[in-house]
Specification:
Length: 451
């Protein structure tokens, strides 16, 4: 209900934050896994506006996590160590953060970089690693692809661990070949992970992370070619804290910050009077648009994104009164083009959807006739109900879900301070309810409850 501005949470406390407008997620300690990190950073910017995720990282954090695992069974310790190693690699990497995260979860970023994370905004120095990559591939090959990244790095650096002695791998040609490069462990770990991104090496998940050479890696062994990778300039300072900032691009910068804060306070006040969460009154992007264009009448307020005539009538009077007084007190000249703002294209789609749902046309047919996917249609319908217009799609929902399922989902949305679908999907994962069914129920909920 926006009664506090900052939440400090421990892992034990949990991070169930159902708010679409979290602007910062700051990790003061390194998370135990990339799965944890990805989920926790996902609390920021769910409304599509700027969200910054800042990670403070120190090797002491890693030592603490390893110490906490000392009394656990061997298999659990090994798996935990692997997860920690992945997170450390992410923190220390010089390549695109988004690319790394997508690769970790089995997806691929098509473009070269995201243009938003710290590594893309401040690119690290690139290094030619043809010879180093050859050393890594030779070592993996001579180890018959039967060992993980830690073991391979130990062989490359000529470390005579008890296991290496037992297997007599200190007799391999690759043993100690990395010493000529005069690079620390971190360089080799980072290199191998970047070789995975390049498709030269893959990690076999089913075999506890053993390194395997890909067909592309085999071609490289036969005939090497140039490989340039980002060199992390933090390798030499492993005791210092490092900051990893990922930030989405912000808005145009013309928003009036003073008015914006006043509108947020008013939204909080109105939400409290109506006993609804603040996002039900107006979404944050609507407030930003108001603080940019200064609507001083209900007619102008309807031109604000996410605000329909119904929503303007229901909640708008106090907002336009506040804006009008602010404009007068500060001698503000409103943007000339605001009154001419066109919403013709969106309006056409909106009318089409309303008419067809009134006729009880199946959603798949509506989507097909408009040349869009069902998911795109549901997103359009989301926008319509968020702006204050009701849609009746009971005829579709009744075919998909029984009364008990509908009531359970409705009850979930009633108790939530956020309309986030991912949270809802996790809640109903065991009930075989799809994300599309939840989205339809959210449209029904917003139509009946918020509008």
């Amino acid at each position: 209900m926006e009664e506090v501005d900052v939440i400090v949470a421990t892992i034990a406390f949990g991070m169930g934050i159902d708010k679409p407008d979290v602007r910062f997620v700051i990790h003061y300690n390194i998370p135990k896994s990339l799965e944890n990190y990805y989920q926790e950073t996902g609390r920021a910017g769910r409304d599509g506006l700027e969200g910054k995720c800042i990670l403070y990282y120190s090797h002491k954090d890693v030592q603490k996590l390893e110490h906490l695992m000392r009394d656990k069974p061997l298999s659990e310790r090994e798996m935990g160590a692997q997860l920690i190693a992945e997170t450390v690699a992410y923190a220390e990497s010089g390549v695109c953060r988004r690319k790394l995260l997508l690769h970790y979860f089995g997806e691929e970023l098509k473009q070269e970089n995201c243009g938003q994370c710290d590594n893309c905004l401040n690119p690290k120095e690139k290094l030619e690693v043809r010879d180093s990559s050859k050393i890594v591939l030779d070592a993996i090959d001579q180890l018959d692809e039967r060992f993980n990244i830690d073991y391979v790095v130990n062989v490359i650096l000529g470390k005579t661990t008890p296991q290496i002695k037992t297997f007599k791998h200190d007799k391999l040609k690759s043993f100690g070949t990395g010493l000529i490069m005069e690079m620390e462990d971190n360089f080799w770990f980072s290199l191998i992970r970047q070789m995975m991104l390049e498709g030269l090496v893959r990690k076999d998940i089913e075999e506890y992370g053993l390194l395997k050479i890909t067909p592309k890696g085999r071609k490289f062994l036969k005939k090497s070619f140039s490989i340039m990778v980002a060199l992390n300039n933090k390798f030499e300072d492993s005791d210092g804290e490092e900051e990893d900032t990922q930030a989405s691009s912000g808005n145009g910068g013309s928003t009036d910050p003073v008015l914006y804060e006043m509108l947020k306070d008013l939204r909080k006040q109105v939400a409290k009077e109506k006993s609804v969460p603040p996002f039900v009154v107006f979404l944050e992007n609507s407030l930003i648009d108001m603080a940019t264009n200064y609507p001083t009448t209900l007619e102008e307020l309807e031109k604000i994104q996410g605000v329909s005539k119904g929503k303007a009538v229901k909640y708008g009077k106090k907002f336009v009164t506040l804006i009008e007084k602010y404009v007068e007190d500060n001698d503000i000249v409103k943007p000339d083009d605001f009154v001419m703002k066109s919403v013709v294209n969106k309006s056409g789609m909106k009318v089409y959807i309303i008419l067809n749902t009134d006729k009880k046309i199946p959603l798949e047919t509506i989507a097909k006739n408009k040349g869009i996917t069902l998911q795109e249609l549901l997103t359009e319908m989301d926008t319509i109900v968020s702006s204050g217009t009701k849609l009746n799609i009971d005829y579709c929902i009744d075919e998909e879900l029984d009364e008990d399922e509908q009531e359970d989902i409705f009850e979930y949305f009633r108790g939530s301070t956020d309309d986030n679908l991912e949270e809802a999907y996790e809640e109903f994962r065991d009930s075989n309810i799809t994300i599309e069914q939840l989205q339809m129920m959210r449209i029904k909920f917003m139509s009946e409850y918020a509008n």
